[in-house]
Each structure stands twice: as C-alpha cells, then as structure tokens.
C-alpha cells in the first residue's frame, strides 16, 4: 500500500517516519472552519475528516492520513495564534491551569474512512510574562495550536503533569495510527 500523509507538519512527518512507515507528503487545500454547532471535543475529528474529503479520489492501494490538533480550555477553542499578541494571550490563559489537547486522525482508502480522536490533559505551572516573551521569540510557535509545542522549551520547563499520550499532544496519536494502519 502507498501511504499518503496530508500534513505539512514537521512533527507529524517525524513521528510517522519514526513509527517505521514510508510515505509521501501531499498537500490539501481546504478552508479549516469549524461550524458553531460542532463541540470543541469533536472539532479535531471534524477538521481531519474535512481535509480527507477535500483530497482527490484515492486509487486502489493508496491510504490517506490526515490529522488535526485542537487545544481547549474551559470549552474554549485555541487554534493557531494569529500573531504574537494572540500567542501571548493564549499562553497567559493556559498558565497555571489544566487544558485538553484533542488530535483527530482520518485514515481513508478507496473503500472506507476511519476517524478517531484521542485526548490528553496537560497541566501547566505558572508562566511569567518574561518566560512567555522568551518562548515566543526563541521558538516562534505560530504554527501550533494553543501557541506551544510540548517538545520545545515551554513543554520541558512548564508542564507539571500529563494525562494521556505525549504524541497526541505533539500532533499525532501514534498508537492509534499504528493500530489502524496495521488493521488495514
């Protein structure tokens, strides 16, 4: 089978490669808008399925993998920051609190589509404005939901507790991807 990864995320590419899969990266053009009636916990799966449905028809033997990660706190959706001020606002909101990270994956063949969501909880220690400034300027987290990457300095220095998969927080629930791809 030919595996197609529809993601430009370097983290997803790295994780899928480290799982031992050979794949081709493909691009999907689709407007990622979540309708208001979709609950926060369902939004990652919705976006993942939206991306998969925007892809061309799959040929026999092709498998498409799409994914989306959503950060939420108090039922508030935190996507990728629009700019530096938005990133600061998000990190201040997450400081000293527990939030949820939902990563939805869709695996599609010419015969079927499978969508799953994994959720993990992350508890941050207090983050000072100085630490926020440092992190944003050093790591430029503008391509990350919630304005942070768990594998970067902020994750190492400020995460007190995790409940769930580290890789789900990083952007790809590798245990689910592996299980579903093996079944296919």
Cα Rg: 16 Å
Residue ranges: pLDDT <50 for 5 or more in a row? none
* Fraction of residues in helix: 25-40%
SS element count, helices: 7
Proper CATH architecture: Alpha-Beta Complex
Number of domains: 1
Shape: elongated
Secondary structure class reads alpha/beta
Structure explained in plain terms:
Its main location: cytoplasm. Helix content is 36%, strand content 27%. Strands 1, 2, 3, 4, 5, 6 and 7 form a seven-stranded mixed sheet that branches. The chain has helices at residues 10-18, 40-54, 84-94, 129-139, 153-158, 166-170, 174-183, and strands spanning 2-5, 23-25, 62-73, 76-78, 98-108, 113-124, 159-163. By secondary structure, it is α/β, with parallel strands linked by helices. The mean pLDDT is 95. The chain has a single domain, classed as Alpha-Beta Complex (Maf protein), CATH 3.90.950.10.
Characteristics of this structure?
7 strands; Maf protein; 184 residues; 7 helices; alpha/beta
Kindly summarize this structure in a few lines.
Its main location: cytoplasm. The protein is α/β, with parallel strands linked by helices and 184 residues long.
Tell me the layout of helices and strands.
Layout: E1 2-5, H1 10-18, E2 23-25, H2 40-54, E3 62-73, E4 76-78, H3 84-94, E5 98-108, E6 113-124, H4 129-139, H5 153-158, E7 159-163, H6 166-170, H7 174-183
Parallel strand pairs: 1-2, 1-3
Antiparallel strand pairs: 3-4, 3-5, 5-6, 6-7
Pfam families: Maf
Function: Nucleoside triphosphate pyrophosphatase that hydrolyzes dTTP and UTP. May have a dual role in cell division arrest and in preventing the incorporation of modified nucleotides into cellular nucleic acids.
Subcellular location: Cytoplasm
């Amino acid at each position: 089978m030919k595996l197609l990864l529809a993601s430009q995320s370097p983290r997803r590419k790295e994780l899928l490669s480290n799982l031992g899969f050979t794949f081709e990266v493909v691009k999907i053009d689709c407007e990622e808008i979540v309708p208001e009636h979709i609950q926060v916990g369902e939004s990652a799966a919705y976006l993942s399925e939206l991306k998969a449905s925007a892809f061309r028809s799959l040929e026999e033997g092709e498998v498409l993998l799409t994914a989306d990660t959503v950060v939420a706190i108090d039922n508030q959706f935190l996507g990728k920051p629009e700019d530096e001020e938005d990133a600061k606002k998000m990190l201040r909101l997450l400081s000293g609190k527990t939030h949820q990270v939902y990563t939805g994956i869709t695996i599609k063949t010419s015969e079927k589509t499978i969508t799953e969501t994994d959720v993990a909880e992350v508890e941050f220690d207090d983050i000072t404005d100085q630490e926020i400034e440092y992190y944003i300027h050093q790591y430029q987290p503008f391509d990350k939901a919630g304005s942070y990457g768990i594998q970067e300095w902020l994750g190492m220095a400020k995460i007190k507790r995790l409940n769930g998969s580290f890789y789900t927080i990083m952007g790809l629930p590798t245990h689910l991807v592996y299980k579903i791809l093996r079944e296919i």
